[in-house]
Amino acid sequence: MKTIRTPAFSLRISERALLVSTAIAALTVAAAVATMVSGDFPLTVGEVLATFLGQGDGYAEFVIFTLRLPRLLTGLLVGAALALSGAILQSLSRNPLASPDIIGFTQGAATGAIAVIVLVQGSMAETALGATVAGLLTSAAVYLLAFKQGVQGFRLVLIGIGVSAMMLAVNSYLLTRATLESALAAQTWLVGGLNNRGWDQAQVVAVVLAVLLPCALILGRRLALLEMGDSAATGLGVNAERTRLALLAVSVGLAAVATAAAGPITFVALAAPQLARRLTAASGPGLTASALMGGLLLVISDLVVQRLFPTTPLPVGIATGAIGGLYLVWLLAHEWRKGSTT
């Protein structure tokens, strides 16, 4: 652990976390380059670089700036937002199963989106707005139901799972009342994907991340103290309940806007923080490494579904669901074995 001190601030950096984060960032750049140069309209690395420098032809500019770059950035930012949201929730609850898609926030956002699609046949922007509002309302309901002289992590997870089941039932009911066309549109949105995502979605997620990421990093030290328990954190000068509420607001905001942009993409928020934590061997929440890992997972998953199924591009949510399902089985088995030996 290295400490950097200046007259204005001091910063402790884990050398292993820095090395892992750099490696994740390098892999993300490699996946981004592969995304830019491959596909139905292949380009060379030189053509891509020339286009970024303003020296490309119209064909390369269309392929890069209209088809590939906005989708790539949307995936990168959505993955980072989901992973950051999951890292905060898992750290707050001290439970590796806590993530927005497990404890109801994502299902709440899905209810809002389906209601807009089925009831008013809204546009993509209206669908995103409905998802954001419903996600925030659901998170507020989970928080209030879990509140009993403060919010405890285990109680939050249990109530979140219950609310998630209720929202799932509402979603199924809405689909039964929809026309065939609306039901197909809603079901497509429910899988979660980056098809037809463009600059509008990327810009919205980028703005929200630009605001909430610094908030999360500033609150990160208090989050690490909360992992030691409320009594210890309070003894070190942290207002536990106020800090928890602020971190929950950041987590919910990130999950809501990510879901609004790309649909309920599953398991990224669950798996990315755990993978980052195991690689960095961090004792704290590891927010930066988690965000980088989330972006990498979603970019690679989207690249795989695009290149393996070029004629009928699958939603990226199918890839993350398949990989995440295997990870969840491993995680549950690991936690069960750990519990049985203690």
UniProtKB/TrEMBL annotation:
GO molecular function: transmembrane transporter activity
Transmembrane segments: 72-90, 102-122, 128-147, 154-174, 204-224, 245-272, 284-305, 312-333
Membrane among keywords: yes
This protein's UniProt keywords: Cell membrane, Membrane, Transmembrane, Transmembrane helix, Transport
GO BP term, pick one: siderophore-iron import into cell
Pfam families: FecCD (PF01032)
Family: Belongs to the binding-protein-dependent transport system permease family. FecCD subfamily.
Protein name, entry field: Iron complex transport system permease protein
Organism, scientific name: Saccharothrix ecbatanensis
Lineage start: Bacteria, Bacillati, Actinomycetota, Actinomycetes, Pseudonocardiales
